[in-house]
Amino acid sequence: MYKNCNNNMVTSLLLFQPAVSVGNVGQLAVDLLISTFDMPKVGYFYTDCLMPMVGNNPYATTEVNSTELSINAEVYSLPSKKLVVLQIRSPFVKNKYRLFCQTLLSWVKSSRCAKVILLSSSHAYQRDDQQLHGTPLRYLLTPAIQKTAGDLMQRLNWKEMEKIAAYPGANDAEMVLHIPGGGITKLLFSESCSNGIQMAVLLKFCSEGDNIPDAFSLVNYLNEWLQLIRSEQSSDAKATLLQWKIPRSWRLLFGSGLPPALF
Amino acid sequence: MATFFGEVLAVPSRAGVDDDEEAALALEREETPEDREIRRELEKKREVHVLWSSKLNASTGNFTDEQFPCSKFIMAIGHNSVAFLSSFVLNSGCWEAVGSVRLWNEWCRTSNTTSVLPTDTFCLFYKLISDPTVLLCQCNCYVAEDQQFQWLEKVFGCMREKDLQVTILSTCPVTDYKTPESTLTLPSPFLKALKTKEYKETVCCPLLEQPNIIKDLPAAVLSYCQVWQIPAVLYQCYTDVIKLDAVTIEAFKPVLSSKNLRNLVKDVSKSAEILKKLVATNEICNNIYT
């Protein structure tokens, strides 16, 4: 359930949320969004579907705000751009991911967001021969958003996530959506299609490892569409890269320092 | 993931929903009534039961329909934290056992008795005889991820949370602590704290720095308090000793000066003796020849 932590109502045109997926790329991308725009926290998504975790403010910029407690699922907002962001920080409790999807979509409908953008990823090693070439970035649009965003995707020359044969080799006629390593991406997308929710999925093929570059790729991809950050040199990807602010919580991603005696 | 020799290995994914789980769900949809019954029985077996004794009723009034008032809830999770409260707080003899949690999971089954050893698995509640709104919880069992929310709802659901303050003590391995230096160079054990927004008192040790986080039941309790605006503080002791250890237990001593605990400590001089006995008893229990 959603619980406000101040008296502001959550109203927005755009809701961003991550899927807990391979490399945690969606979550890292959402971290970049919250950190770059210094979004204040507006509420908690309190649920028994995610494993509990707490820590001090991952986006701290001063001594004072570094002591604010954060939990496993929180909502941030940027009223000036009418953005709301849900960040998820822990994996699902076993067998609870379906319930989480239902609760999440129910909240999305009740908060009356115009559009939902789901940031996700998929296993790079499961790409077929065609997908191995070209961009590793893909999109998906529900029928409800197809009308408003479909043309723009064409103009941006983006690639739609390909469907695969349901029974490869046996029957190539029946094609299905398959997002291996995408966590709840496919379920959220399918449910949004059935419920008339305007949802766009942006995902990147990647592997587990240092996924920071993947997160930057994904937010730059998002930025191509929504122009959240305007780069001063128009097509300079490097300039855009430098403007995303890395949060404090990205320190020590691969553990503590090494004992000197090791060497 | 492809290895050096070219074979493809299935790598555990952080996605949280593996394709194996999807396949398992597909099987679930085909499960027989007997399979469904077994699954339901297993879910029932994993239910958390909180049993309050009539002593709590007697002092605070009948709360079968209403909640009982609670001004202080002090909780120890894990054997070192539990031993700390046993030696330094419960030793005063002013406490009475008023409840227990009964649960089962793959790692433990709680015992029903209130006279427990450090090696036993239990979750017990004590009330302060002179002020029945002060409740202490000794949790020496592992509460699994699917049981934590149930635990919270059933325990906090019984309390009237007006003016409630919560203190949680817990331990974890020092290897979980992230620092630019190696953890081998850290002077463990050491204490770190996390507090909710509503907690305005002074904390007894430095706050836990990012990117460190807390998980499991201590995190569940603190999250609950943060969301429902209850003043709460968690003291986490990072230690390099897994078993019951006097040095680790004594690392919690700064907490005795906190507002919630200072009036509950009667005679610290006796505590050292009780602590020594507790640790010695545990060593005897762990002896393979007994």
Automatic annotation (TrEMBL), chain A:
<comment type="subunit">
    <text>Forms a heterodimer with PSMG1. The PSMG1-PSMG2 heterodimer interacts directly with the PSMA5 and PSMA7 proteasome alpha subunits.</text>
</comment>
<dbReference type="GO" id="GO:0060090">
    <property type="term" value="F:molecular adaptor activity"/>
</dbReference>
<dbReference type="Pfam" id="PF09754">
    <property type="entry name" value="PAC2"/>
</dbReference>
<dbReference type="GO" id="GO:0005634">
    <property type="term" value="C:nucleus"/>
</dbReference>
<dbReference type="InterPro" id="IPR019151">
    <property type="entry name" value="Proteasome_assmbl_chaperone_2"/>
</dbReference>
<dbReference type="GO" id="GO:0051131">
    <property type="term" value="P:chaperone-mediated protein complex assembly"/>
</dbReference>
<dbReference type="GO" id="GO:0005829">
    <property type="term" value="C:cytosol"/>
</dbReference>
<keyword id="KW-0597">Phosphoprotein</keyword>
<comment type="similarity">
    <text>Belongs to the PSMG2 family.</text>
</comment>
<keyword id="KW-0143">Chaperone</keyword>
<protein>
    <recommendedName>
        <fullName>Proteasome assembly chaperone 2</fullName>
    </recommendedName>
</protein>
<dbReference type="InterPro" id="IPR038389">
    <property type="entry name" value="PSMG2_sf"/>
</dbReference>
<dbReference type="GO" id="GO:0101031">
    <property type="term" value="C:protein folding chaperone complex"/>
</dbReference>
<comment type="function">
    <text>Chaperone protein which promotes assembly of the 20S proteasome as part of a heterodimer with PSMG1. The PSMG1-PSMG2 heterodimer binds to the PSMA5 and PSMA7 proteasome subunits, promotes assembly of the proteasome alpha subunits into the heteroheptameric alpha ring and prevents alpha ring dimerization.</text>
</comment>
<dbReference type="GO" id="GO:0007094">
    <property type="term" value="P:mitotic spindle assembly checkpoint signaling"/>
</dbReference>
<keyword id="KW-0539">Nucleus</keyword>
<dbReference type="InterPro" id="IPR016562">
    <property type="entry name" value="Proteasome_assmbl_chp_2_euk"/>
</dbReference>
<dbReference type="GO" id="GO:0043066">
    <property type="term" value="P:negative regulation of apoptotic process"/>
</dbReference>
<dbReference type="GO" id="GO:0043248">
    <property type="term" value="P:proteasome assembly"/>
</dbReference>
